[in-house]
Task: inverse folding
């Protein structure tokens, strides 16, 4: 009988009743036979808890006050018993068959410690948006190098998975980081272990006006530049390239905002 490695997915949540059911269904709908799913809710008051209760024993969950997203992720990861782990935010979703693709990758590449795939950007109604950005990132992610990661964060967090053993070796999410904690973690892993690449869509990242990424783009990119400097070891070229990418991305976001504002008049 085939042995399926256990996979643990952690979802941090706070007042996301509008989206969290889609997130949960996308995970449970994977129909992977050895899945552990943990939701760490920060004490939501919007009906999230009632939604969590409705799933019975299909999910492990807690609802209590926490220090924010990074702490909630770590609380869930410390409970995780899976050989493979990941976190998926409470407004994002997995593509059908994503977990099976990840498991097959690690089985075929046992020396790899972590892997990422493609990720679509969708709006609050699940419609794909910002396709040029997705197209650009798909080109970047085809081949991993740490030097390239220093120059630009091309890895989509919802489409990234890693082996549990890295939690003991590399540690957990930096709880002092609140906007780009994922990039800081990729840099920590990536400076030691090259990532694997799955050339398929694994997840959908939701962007809308009140989401953290939608409303705080500039702080996010400034934090990424700071992190790249911290991990560069004094190398000038990747930091120079990261600065160029910083100005390029912030200009694109300003342009998109102006176009959207003009279209709403």
Result:
């Amino acid at each position: 009988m085939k042995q399926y490695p256990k996979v643990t997915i952690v979802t941090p949540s706070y007042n996301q009743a509008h989206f969290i059911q889609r997130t949960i269904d996308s995970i449970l709908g994977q129909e992977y036979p050895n899945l552990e799913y943990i939701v760490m809710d920060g004490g939501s008051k919007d009906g999230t808890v009632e939604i969590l209760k409705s799933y019975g024993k299909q999910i492990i969950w807690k609802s209590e006050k926490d220090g924010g997203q990074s702490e909630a992720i770590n609380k869930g990861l410390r409970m995780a018993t899976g050989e493979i782990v990941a976190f998926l935010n409470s407004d994002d979703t997995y593509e059908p068959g994503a977990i099976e693709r990840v498991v097959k990758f690690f089985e075929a590449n046992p020396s790899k410690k972590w892997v990422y795939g493609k990720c679509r950007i969708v709006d609050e109604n699940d419609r794909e948006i910002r396709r040029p950005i997705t197209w650009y990132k798909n080109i970047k992610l085809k081949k991993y190098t740490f030097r390239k990661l220093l120059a630009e964060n091309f890895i989509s967090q919802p489409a990234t998975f890693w082996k549990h053993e890295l939690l003991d070796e590399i540690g957990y999410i930096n709880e002092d980081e609140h906007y780009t904690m994922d990039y800081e973690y990729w840099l920590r892993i990536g400076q030691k272990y090259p990532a694997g690449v799955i050339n398929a869509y694994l997840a959908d990242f939701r962007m809308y006006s009140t989401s953290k990424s939608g409303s705080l783009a500039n702080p996010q990119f400034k934090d990424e530049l700071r992190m790249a400097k911290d991990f560069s070891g004094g190398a000038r070229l990747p930091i120079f390239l990261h600065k160029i990418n910083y100005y390029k991305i912030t200009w694109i976001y300003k342009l998109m905002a102006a176009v959207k504002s003009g279209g709403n008049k």
Observations:
- Residues 236-263 form the longest helix (28 residues).
- The chain has one domain: 7-208.
